[in-house]
Amino acid sequence: MPHMAIEYSANLDAAVDMDGLCALVADTMLETGLFEIGAIRVRAFRAQSYAIADRLPQNGFIDMNLRIGKGRSAEEKKSAGEAIFAAVSARLAELFATPHFALSLEIREIDAELSWKKNAIHPRLRGK
Ligand SMILES: O=C(O)C/C(=C\C=C(/O)C(=O)O)C(=O)O
């Protein structure tokens, strides 16, 4: 399944609605047409401990790691990454107006021979 894991520094708690950010990422992934709805998983993890750049207490980060199955072209993967990065960047425009925020995204492919999956959501959603 496409897994999006978002890590963020705990000092962003008040500035970013993480549930809303997860929903935005899931919606954007779906809109690319490259991911099946029943396969999308997005979650956010709060990093309580961190050291960012010059260690100013205002410095914050969000790092997004997307793991997807093989089978999509390089162009498709690139356009998906660009769509997600643009949507999240727009949502976080206020943070980019400060000199204290860093955003990153990486897409990796899952090795089909070394991964296992079983999904009871697909049958329910594929029938719709
Ligand atoms: O192939 C993968 O492991 C990832 C994937 C889809 C996975 C599912 O549909 C699933 O786990 O139910 C993908 O589309 O990249």
Automatic annotation (TrEMBL):
InterPro entries: 5-COMe_2-OHmuconate_Isoase (IPR004220), Tautomerase/MIF_sf (IPR014347)
Pfam families: CHMI
Alphabetic keyword roster: Isomerase
Signal peptide residues on this chain, from the entry's feature table: none
Gene Ontology molecular-function annotations: 5-carboxymethyl-2-hydroxymuconate delta-isomerase activity
Name of this protein: 5-carboxymethyl-2-hydroxymuconate isomerase
Organism annotation: Mesorhizobium hungaricum
